Fold:
Amino acid sequence: MPIYVDADACPVKAEVERVGTRHGVRMFIVSNGGLRPSQNPLVETVIVPDGPDVADMWIAERAGPGDVVITGDIPLAARCVEAGAQVLKHNGEALTAANIGNVLATRDLMADLRAADPFRQGGGKGYTKADRSRFLEALERAVRAAGRSGV
Structure:
């Protein structure tokens, strides 16, 4: 049961490492580069070639039942959910078979709205301590559940 982290712009890499280490879980930190490798023997830093969605493809090809995936990328999350993995966003929100369709539809709608109004300003809200706390709780639950599933 590994944990896969879509590490580009991921604000919770240290938290993943802390929880994964506590449970003795192997972790794959996947990015296009620019990350300092961890000295933790449970952490494997995977540097993929530059290119659109290469890190996402690497994770999606490997994630399956019993695995945990950390990502903010909704299309990647959908592929991992379909493969049977547990998926968490950086704020602790679980993406599941029950909600991924709505999340994908909302993402597409927002992309269409941004495209229709190029002067639209603003971005997402900032990452808060409450988001970090929710993430840690959700990751702890996900790792325990994956361990119980015995997959």
